[in-house]
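Bench log. Compound arrived from synthesis this morning; before running ITC I wanted a structural hypothesis for how pyridoxal-5'-phosphate sits in the protein. Inputs:
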Amino acid sequence: MDPFLLESLAPVGADAPVSPIARRPAHLVGNTPILWIDEPFAPPGRGFHAKLEGANPGGIKDRPGLHMIREARRRGDLAPGAPIVESSSGTLGLGLALAGLTYGHPVTVVTDQGMEVSMFRLLTALGAHVDQVAAPHPDGGWQQARRERVAELLGGAPGAYCPDQYHNPDNTAAYRPLAAELLAQLGRIDVLVAAVGTGGHSAGIAAGLRERCPGLRLIGVDAVGSTIFGQPAGPRLMRGLGSSIHPSNVDYQAFTEVHWVAPAEAVWACRQLARRHYASGGWSVGAVALVAGWAARTYPAGTRIAAVFPDGPHRYLETIYNDAWCREHGLLGSEPPPQPDEIAEPDECVVTGWTRCSRVRDPLGRETATKSAKAGTR
Ligand SMILES: Cc1ncc(COP(=O)(O)O)c(C=O)c1O
């Protein structure tokens, strides 16, 4: 790493361009910075460009939160002042709280018992109502239980609107500006590494980048125990990435390969990022960094790799960054292997640690051929 010994005697930041004054908090969304990440993920001279979406007021989902609500109002699906109800593990909740404030709608975030206390408090402080389901659905897990509760709340509130981030194409389209920012910042991108939950940001950014970089390779990062890419549903400690349903925003055909990552591996990566690079985040950030570091070691020198870091570390101080909590869950003490395990088919066996598969297909066999082309056209 370059020693950050500035030649100039001016205080750090003195030469930074002065940002314009934001008149509304929504104007603070976007134009997020990029940080170069190398050791210990890659040897000196190799590394990847981390797009720090945690620099948005709420996180990466400020973008779809604002865009989905703006589009719903434009179409007339959401009347002025009508309530918004959505299922979220927290990040979209923050984006919707911002959209509610911006456009004047009350917001209810339906979540589960795994939501961090700090996220619960923050959402409440920002004016959202948080509704926590008590138990997982017997087949569809927590996500299905949350979705059923959303349906129940919508049924009881005429005019209420659910953006449905799992299936709403406006979620994907919201990331076109992020792709444009990456192109402006990096010029050319060869590999994009992105976590997958609803599938929105991987699909939207890849579609935007491919217009200028048609050879782009898209590496999807999922959690062990997630059903998205064809594994059976299992217990998931990691939040944000992964799912127990099959969101239709996942653009299966856009992916070159998928990696599943386990919680201890993500914890190791998050803590390394914090120590060595000051910038870190949550489960998806750790998992993405692990895989992007592998790409930086594996692809030829000069390959330009961008990785999306969806949020920052503060929400995870009592989990990922809490030694006692991590010890209780057996997440400390082992470094991830230098290479992932490999499987030829996504459902070949149940994966329990970092595993890679270069065969990606929709486990439900849905038609996705036109999805990339459609992203951003609504
Ligand atoms: C922190 C975090 N990382 C990653 C993701 C996955 O992003 P996407 O839903 O765009 O696939 C989410 C989704 O909620 C998230 O909250």
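What the model suggests: The chain has eleven helices and eleven strands. The pocket of pyridoxal-5'-phosphate is lined by residues 89, 91-92, 195-202, 240-241, 282, 284, 310-311 (CB under 6 Å).
ITC booked for Thursday regardless.
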